[in-house]
Amino acid sequence: MGNRKIRYFIFGAVVMFLFNSIKTQAQNLENGKKIYETRCLVCHQADGGGVPNMNAPLDGSTNVVSSDIGRLVKIIKNGFNERVELDGLYYSNSMTPNPDFTPAQISDVLSFIRTSWSNKASKVTIAQVQVALKGNQKTKTK
Amino acid sequence: MKKGIYLLLLLSISVHFLANAQDNAGLTLPNGFKANLFAENIGSARHIAISKNGVVFAKLNRADKQGRTIIRLADENKDGVSDKITGWANYGGTGIYLSGNALYASSNEAIFKYQLDASDEVVNPLSPITVVTGLINRRQHESKSITFDKANNIYVNIGAYSNACQDKDRTPGAQGMMPCPILDSAGGIWKFDASKENQTYGDGKRYATGLRNVVGLDWNPQANKLYVAQHGRDQLNTFFPSLYTDAQNAELPAETFYEINEGDNAGWPYVYYDNFQHKKIVSPEYGGDGKKEGASDIKNPAVAFPAHMAPMGVLFYTGNQFPEKYKNGAFITFHGSWNRAPLPQEGFFVAFVPFKNGKATGDWEIFANGFAGTMDGTKITSTRNAKARPCGLAQGPDGSIYVSDDTKGSIFKISYQK
Question: What ipTM, to 2 d.p.?
Fold first, then answer.
């Protein structure tokens, strides 16, 4: 009898866990979309297409879908104006830094841009962002 | 049955030709005007210049597949479409200007001079004379557009490498620097003597200041004065959401067109022009609240256009082909906006500004529209979806005007037929 109760309990916990993780995943992308619309869309445009020669596209960018999460986290936090070649082209504008973003917000917006439009990469966890931010602190204080 | 198919084929071919002849290369024009594609897919064609013989020279922003950045386009069979395309040079840039048989072209740091022979072929493609060098290029607003007065002086734009001269560019909460240190070497128009070599800042003079970024400029021959079109600042709403809504940012500040006298100050970064209040308003980075007025000695625009449309080329029309109304007026190409987002983008067109006795009448109208390629009226929400973005502007020997597009590199020829 007790055994069965435990089994029910475990089953319920698993269901709850799955349900919650689906819910937080959806929330994650929902938040990411909101952040994108208020802080990024002006330059990177509604379809992630950027502005030719000015603001880099996020849709179809090999860097955005790459596994180098650390680089992406730093770009969001510190802004970006290194004028490096991105998929064969250069962009002239300066990207606004977002020093106020929490690790959760960074994970939300990165998850959104990595899974939107034609991009089909993995989402970014808060833990991944935290690791990258530690490295960011070190390089900044150096 | 077979006959029927042939007939259908014939019909569809003739419909196709008819449509092509009437579609004016996709543009909407005033009555009596027609347009055709003089060239297609030549690369990122910025400014253009046209010789007395009708040869078109286009300056590319990036090298084309053959590594060329100045493209020479001739129409040898005179059918209105270029049929001989050659090119040279290996530096990207925007400016190009023809003065007699000298062709001047600019990189984002320097101005070079080439000699043309009697048939408009370049004599010294690999060894141009360096007229000006060492101009600031920090990528943002890097175009060194050029024009000339009647005394062989060059006027070159040196754009400000900043949005609003904040101590950290495009950063929320960053203050405007006072005074703005950028203005010593950028954010204005510099004047140089075209007959001298290897000049830099010390050899020229700052002719006008307080201009954030000017891509389109031309000498008004009737007024004998320089006219410049400025790109106004961006992102009032992103940095100051409590002062400006998205809808207000989409309409502020005006893109401005100025008559320039030596020493003029157009006010960047301290003020911007508000075309609803008709006032110069203090920038929020300098303590403005959207209402406070700027200093009264700052230049007023001759004409103000809607925000963010990015004026790229200016041409004072001196030809005899177009109706009288256009004579001595100014055509201005607009690149189309990006900073109106989240609202739809606007301004992928060529405007006309009527002039009377050398002065703008204050009105303007759309002359040629449809470059973005959405003839059905759908709005462009993302700038990359615009098929063509008007940039360079020049007048041909027969009085037609030519408009270049720097996305794929079309050159539109626009003519008038009585």
Answer: 0.81
